[in-house]
Design a protein that fits this description.
The complex is a heterodimer of chains A (119) and B (290). Chain A is 38% helix and 19% strand. Chain A is of the alpha+beta class and 119 residues long. The radius of gyration of chain B is 20 Å and the shape is globular. Chain B starts with 19 loop residues before the first helix and ends with a helix. The chains are: A alpha+beta (119), B alpha+beta (290). At the A-B interface, strand 2, strand 3, strand 4 and helix 4 of A face helix 6 and helix 7 of B.
Chain lengths: 119, 290
């Protein structure tokens, strides 16, 4: 298990299989079954998320995205590493230790329980 | 009435909302009818004979004799001295008034909704979602409000009536995600599903002449977010899906539920409002647009 800050271009990211997700108008909504958290990714992060299948490192993913968007590869690479580190902190990646101090996701336990059980 | 079969397990609801009903219990005419809901024995306090008869008739197959059961709910009738005024029926849970109806049948349905919520869960039909939300129905359309506090309901209800909207009893609704329709609710604790013509008239509301028999269509979803410092705003389908997960019963595969929510919010407008009062303002604005 590694820290999210240690993620570099050589890292091969793999999305946690406990994360169910759907894309709605270019934005991904992620539901993490274990901690019962929900995340919304912006369109750019959604593009990156789609690539996290455990088969390519971040350098390759960034290179592909830079080609698609005709953007500066170095800038794209920096953005990809930053986004994937954040996903790691949120506990969304296999092998990356979540960082509870930075968890920004919507935790749904308290709301759901109070709404469904009012005793 | 059955005797509650002494060997069967029984539980009582915790009395967490004050002792108002216990204080009334000793008064002349105040009776506690006890309804069996699963292994719960739930006392329903009434004062008027007519109300008590209606309650006991409506729940007759689930009535038990249990003098030890505390009253958790109460239905009381109030009336004014004004000419032609109709009585109002108030449903209380402990010290909290949770619903007011113009007909006894409507109050009983509200009680049934609260009792049904305590039965073991049954998964909703395929392609449907079960949501913790208050439904405002008017003229064949529905506005859903998931995060309304129970304390805000008595405040919301008179406003709904004036606006021509009917507040459906209970806080759980089932929706057909594909057709964005509110599904009719069958109460499991009620022995009588049909509670009389009076209720039907009430349910039709002020626009009865123009309403069809079709299931009402859900047009808007309003989230109350007390932490939001911004004013009311429209939100994207993705944000709506994310926010609504908290109010959705995840009784099936989460991926399937997410897909249903996405289908639903591609057709339904979603808003965030910063406080309960803003619900009224927004719904009024939306109603005027229609």
């Amino acid at each position: 298990m590694m820290d999210a800050d240690a993620i570099s271009e050589d890292f091969v990211p793999d999305a946690d299989p406990d994360v169910a997700w759907i894309e709605v108008d270019g934005e991904a909504v992620l539901y993490h079954e274990g901690p019962r958290t929900v995340h919304v990714l912006n369109p750019t992060a959604t593009m990156i998320w789609r690539c996290l299948d455990g088969s390519g490192d971040l350098r390759t993913i960034a290179s592909d995205l830079a080609e698609i968007f005709e953007a500066d590869p170095e800038a794209v690479s920096a953005d990809v590493v930053r986004a994937v580190r954040e996903m790691g902190r949120q506990g969304l990646l296999v092998g990356v230790r979540p960082d509870p101090g930075t968890m920004a996701a919507i935790r749904i336990d308290a709301v759901a329980e109070s709404e469904f059980l009012d005793e | 009435m059955s005797d509650g079969a002494p060997s069967r397990p029984r539980r009582y609801l915790p009395q967490r909302r004050g002792g108002c009903l216990a204080e009334r219990a000793g008064r002349p005419g105040v009776i506690n009818s006890v309804i069996r809901v699963g292994d719960l024995h739930i006392g329903v306090q009434t004062e008027e004979t007519e109300v008590r008869r209606a309650v006991e008739d409506a729940f007759r197959t689930n009535l038990v004799a249990d003098p030890a059961a505390p009253a958790s709910f109460a239905i009381y009738r109030t009336s004014t001295n004004l000419p032609d005024s109709r009585p109002l029926y108030h449903l209380h849970q402990g010290c909290l008034r949770i619903f007011t109806a113009r007909t006894m049948a409507h109050a009983i349905r509200s009680l049934a909704a609260h009792l049904d919520d305590r039965l073991p869960h049954e998964p909703p039909p395929e392609r449907s979602l079960e949501l913790a939300a208050v439904a405002l129905v008017g003229d064949g359309t529905v506005k859903l409000i998931p995060s309304i506090a129970p304390l805000a309901l008595p405040h919301l209800q008179p406003w709904c009536r004036r606006a021509g909207l009917k507040l459906l009893p209970g806080r759980l609704v089932q929706v057909d995600a594909d057709r964005r329709e509110l599904m009719p609710r069958q109460f499991r604790t009620l022995s009588l599903q049909e509670l009389g013509e009076e209720e039907e008239q009430d349910a039709r509301g002020p626009s009865s002449e123009t309403r069809s028999c079709a299931a009402p269509t859900i047009t808007d979803w309003v989230f109350v977010d007390g932490t939001s410092m911004a004013g009311s705003r429209s939100i994207s389908p993705a944000e709506a899906v994310a926010r609504s997960v908290a109010f959705t019963r995840l009784s099936r595969n989460p991926a399937e539920i997410l897909a249903l929510l996405a289908t639903f919010f591609r057709q339904v407008s979603a808003f965030v409002v910063p406080r309960h009062e803003s619900v009224l303002e927004l719904v009024e604005e939306l109603s005027n647009k229609e």
